[in-house]
Specification:
Elements: E1 3-13, E2 22-37, E3 41-44, H1 56-67, E4 74-81, H2 91-106, H3 113-124, H4 130-135, E5 138-144, E6 147-153, E7 160-166, H5 172-177, H6 185-204, H7 207-213, H8 220-223, H9 230-239, E8 243-246, E9 253-257, H10 262-273, E10 278-283, E11 291-295
Parallel strand pairs: 3-4
Antiparallel strand pairs: 1-2, 1-11, 2-4, 2-5, 5-6, 7-9, 7-10, 8-9
Helix pairs in contact: 1-2, 1-3, 2-3, 6-7, 9-10
Length: 296
């Protein structure tokens, strides 16, 4: 029987003012192996609660087969996930991407990457994590007439990302529930202008511009109440000169810098400052995106 393993990078979405639009792939990965069998479904490597047919990797796998008009056979799926779940680092998007790519690879790669993005976006509802997971690097994306459109933006190679990951999760549904249905014209203009400058700062490697531009009025000020010690950590990070934002819907907090000693500087003060336990994950930009790493 055929077998294929897909590696998908973690992603951070929003990047401050780029709400539901900006995303970047990072050097943390989930590997998912798909092996066709005669019949049935077997899922290993995850909690038993996620071993049924509603597993996101399997849902996307089935959706891709249906799009190709291919027969659904049995499949064994093994998940080796290093992306923290419900932490704002694209764990659900990674499973959707892996499932769609796995089905496509097993059946002759009949679908383009754009086709796979279309399928997974129909399930996820917004492409901000999916686009960088598929394409790598820094992306901006939108939905036009129901279909996702994304482009890559250049990134200065010297940026370092430090993810501060807490010991509690924050489901996206809860993080979206605190957002208002409407925003003011002033807040909309604020985010558009700041978002444009974030993209340029990331291209140029301009730390001062990035610190100033990575401000937001659409989601972070509402979500920070869900994250203990958010304001204390933000103040601490900003004293180091790093840019700071929520990663996705949170609760992971993201620092972007060119200072290789940022982790050391924060480690001296972070534990004493906070009530939760925070793990520091130094990450790099993943420029390649999702890919097949093994095939038989």
């Amino acid at each position: 029987m055929k077998r294929v393993t897909i590696r998908v990078p973690a992603t951070t979405a929003n990047l401050g003012p780029g709400f539901d639009a900006f995303g970047c792939a990072l050097s943390l990965y989930t590997d998912v192996t798909f092996e066709e069998t005669d019949a049935g479904l077997e899922i290993t490597g995850c909690d038993e609660a996620f071993t049924g047919p509603d597993n996101l990797a399997y849902v996307a796998y089935c959706a891709a087969l249906a799009t190709m008009s291919e027969e659904l056979r049995g499949v064994k799926i093994h998940i080796d996930a290093h992306i923290p779940v419900c932490r704002g680092l694209g764990s659900s998007a990674a499973l959707l991407v892996a499932g769609a790519m796995g089905a496509n690879a097993l059946r002759g790669n009949k679908l383009s990457t754009q086709g796979l993005l279309n399928i997974t976006n129909a399930m996820e509802g917004h492409p901000d994590n999916l686009a960088p997971a598929f394409y790598g690097g820094l992306t901006a994306s939108m939905v036009d007439n129901g279909l996702p459109v994304c482009v890559n933006f250049p990134l200065h190679p010297d940026w370092e990302f430090l993810a501060l990951v807490p010991d509690f999760d924050l489901p996206t549904t809860k993080a979206r529930a605190v957002l208002p249905e409407q925003v003011s014209r002033g807040d909309a203009i604020y985010n558009i202008s700041h978002g444009a400058l974030v993209l340029k700062a990331l291209e140029l490697g301009d730390e001062k511009l990035l610190r100033n531009a990575m401000q937001d009025r659409l989601h972070q000020k509402y979500r920070k109440s869900l994250i203990p010690d958010y304001e204390k950590i933000e103040s601490l990070v900003r004293t180091t000169g790093a840019a700071f934002c929520l990663s996705g819907a949170g609760p992971t907090l993201l620092c972007i810098t060119q200072d290789e000693r940022l982790e050391e500087k924060l480690a001296q003060k972070l534990d004493a400052l906070t009530t939760a336990n925070w793990q520091m994950l130094p990450l790099h930009i993943e420029f390649q995106g999702a890919r097949v790493i093994a095939s038989e």
